[in-house]
Amino acid sequence: MDLGIAGKWALVGGSSKGLGLGCAQALAAEGVNVVMVARGADALQAAAAGIRAAHPGVQVLPVAADITTPAGRDAVFGVAGGPGKAFDIVITNAGGPPPGDFRQWDRDAWLAALDANMLTPIELIKATIDGMAERGFGRIVNITSGAVKAPIDILGLSNGARSGLTGFVAGVARSSVTAKGVTVNNLLPGAFDTDRLRVTMVGAATKSGKPIEAVADARRQTIPARRFGTSEEFGAVCAFLCSAQAGYITGQNILADGGAYPGTF
After folding, report:
1. For 114, what's the count of Cα atoms within 13 Å in the CB-facing half-sphere?
2. Which of 12, 107, 230, 262 would staple 91 via disulfide (CB 3.0–4.6 Å)?
3. Residue 227, class by beta-carbon neighbours within 10 Å (0-12 exposed, 13-18 middle, 19+ buried)?
4. Ramachandran region, residue 100 (left: φ > 0; alpha: ψ -120 to 50; beta: rest)
5. CA quadruple 242, 246, 249, 253: dihedral sign
6. Are 59 and 31 in contact (CB under 8 A)?
7. Radius of gyration over alpha carbons of the chain, in Å?
8. Does the global pTM surpass 0.85?
9. Strand locations in 101-252, DSSP E?
10. Is 253 exposed, middle or buried (0-12, 13-18, 19+ CB in 10 A)?
């Protein structure tokens, strides 16, 4: 299927590895020019080089910056050769806050979680959504977490911050921009084989006193697919949400979790 987005420009956060990289790769495969942002310069450059080699017909511009800061966002929007704020596609994505016991988190820990996982996506949406509406096309996909629908006790910082973003998106996705070709959705990963999952399982192993291998095996058994997801299949779902064909999907929380969420709705 031709997704109808070749030649457009996408901003993809946290795209040096994991799910963000999977999204950048999938979009580039569709002919989308990609501005990739992450804090780790070496990993980001390597990821960008890999995409260029695989898809020489697209522009790939890496920006090593902390997008949760105003300076980082200025660097992204000011990158030479990029589209400025005229992105057609924005994928918001930032590493989740650390797991732990909520009794140990102070105000600074909560503010850091909100900055990364709620306020930064809102700032990116604010900076780009009106331009999308003026041009008649826009796709915003926020990578949040399956824990928004089925909270995990040790991920309280993430549960809280990402739920706040979910509430915000529920309103803006149904605002006047919708009639102008702009969609806003959340993509909720379950257990994917990423560094983030490994950190979470280390935390669970530490809390339970069980070996990490036992924790991983137990987690797989809770997933009907009996495996962890891959960044490639996650990227494919993201690319479809950014497609011309997905123009009637907005304000949704799309779970990609191998069937792990047990609810009907």
Report:
1. 9
2. 12
3. exposed
4. left
5. negative
6. no
7. 18
8. yes
9. 138-143, 182-189
10. middle
- CB-facing half-sphere around the CA of 154: CA atoms within 13 A: 14
Rounded to whole angstroms, how far apart are CA atoms 214 and 210? 7
Write the pLDDT tens digit of every residue in 159-210: 999 999 999 999 999 999 999 999 999 999 999 998 878 887 888 888 889 9
Looking at this protein, which amino acid is placed at residue 79?
V
The whole-angstrom separation of Cα 253 and Cα 265 is 11
Q: Is the dihedral of CA 228, 11, 123, 38 positive or negative?
A: positive
Instruction: Kindly list the strands in the beta sheet with 253-256, ordered across the sheet, starting from the edge strand earlier in the chain.
Output: 60-64, 33-38, 9-13, 89-92, 138-143, 182-189, 253-256
Helix axes 120-135, 70-77, angle to 10 degrees: 30
The two tokens of residue 59 are 């522009």
- Distance between the two ends of the chain, CA-based, in angstroms? 29
